[in-house]
Every structure is written in C-alpha cells, then in structure tokens.
Design goal:
Elements: H1 14-19, E1 22-23, E2 30-31, H2 36-45, H3 55-77, H4 83-95, E3 98-102, E4 108-112, H5 118-138, E5 144-147, E6 156-159, H6 171-189
Antiparallel strand pairs: 1-2, 3-4, 5-6
Helix pairs in contact: 3-4, 3-5, 4-5
C-alpha cells in the first residue's frame, strides 16, 4: 500500500518555506516531513538534493526548523530572539559546507560539500537553510517578516510584496479559508430571502 503525504508548501524564501513543513501549528498540526525520505524529497524540490537521510538527520532538521520558526516569530513580533534558537541556527550555518554557483542559464544553484557520504550532504543542506534564516531574521534581505493572520496557523512568513502588507502565509490555503469563513459568518448574520 502506497503511503501518501501532505503536499509541500513551497515559497520563494527557503528559510520560511522550511518552517512550513509543519503547518497549522495552533490548530491540528500537519507534519509534512514525517520520515527521513520525505525530508530528502523536500530538500530535492528546494534545490538541495541529497542522496539519503537518516532519522538522526531528520531530528536535526526539525530542531533547525523549530529554531527558525521561534526566531522568525520573535522577529516578526518585535521581540527578543530566543537564545537557544539563535544558537541552533548559528551552529547549523557554521557546520554546512555549500557554495552558491552560477548556472550557464544565469540561475543560482547550491553545490553541497564534496564529502562522499550523504551525512555531510544533509548537514550542508541544513547549513544553506540556516544561512538563509540568518539573512531573513537579521533584515539583510529585502522584505519583512510577518505572522499569518489565520488563528490556526500563525506561521512566520517573509513578505516581499510591493506594499509589504500580506496577511497570510499563503493566499491559496490560509487566506482563502479565512475569507470563506468570514463570508459564511456574514451570510448567517444576514436576514434570509423570506424575512
């Protein structure tokens, strides 16, 4: 029997896309990387392909994901960054060995470390994600951190819209769900056609 997993939520910002591998944090959480292979799949679609992933590496990835979420949430709310989260992000960033390379088509790709085993490849991929988190949380990238307006989500996302006024992490999920709920609530409060 084939096991199916929830689809990935992929955005244009690596660090916050990685935090979206756990969604609905304040509702019924949806884990999008429940297995080591699923983490390897996410890394591949994010341009950080690795040969394989172990359970221990999945644990490190989840620790990084939660640290990025905590730091990004604090930054979006204008609060002090949690020291433990900063330490994890910095450690993963320092451990990674990856280089940005230019393709003949003029695109940026990541070349993970040249180590022959996949163990360092996952560490290298996590290092790229952590380095992106440093850029996002520190304000080095053009945009702003914000928190999703959905009460069941509250994910930190990086808003690069022109007005910097996005309200939801994803319009197709949280935004549509919230607008639909408001619409139905408004209809219930209106008099019916026979009234």
């Amino acid at each position: 029997m084939r096991v199916t997993f929830p689809e990935f939520r992929l955005g244009s910002v690596l660090a916050t896309s990685f935090t979206a591998t756990l969604t609905e944090r304040r509702g019924t959480p949806v884990e999008r990387i429940p297995t080591p292979q699923r983490l390897a799949d996410w890394l591949a679609v994010s341009g950080l392909a690795v040969d394989s992933c172990t359970a221990a590496q999945l644990d490190l990835a989840r620790e990084l994901r939660e640290s990025i979420h905590l730091a990004a949430t604090a930054a979006a709310a204008g609060e002090a960054l949690p020291a433990a989260a900063v330490r994890v992000i910095n450690d993963r960033s320092a451990e990674g060995r990856a280089a940005a390379v230019l393709t003949p088509e003029g695109k940026r790709e990541w070349r993970l470390g040249a180590a022959p085993d996949a163990v360092s490849d996952v560490a290298d991929a996590l290092g790229v994600i952590a380095a992106d988190a440093v850029a996002v949380v520190s304000g080095a990238r053009d945009g702003r951190l914000a928190l999703c307006a959905s009460p069941t989500c509250r994910a930190a996302f990086f808003d690069t819209s022109r007005s910097r006024s996005r309200r939801w992490c994803e319009m197709n999920t949280c935004g549509n769900r919230e607008k639909k709920a408001r619409f139905h609530a408004g209809r219930r409060g209106q008099p019916g056609p026979a009234d």
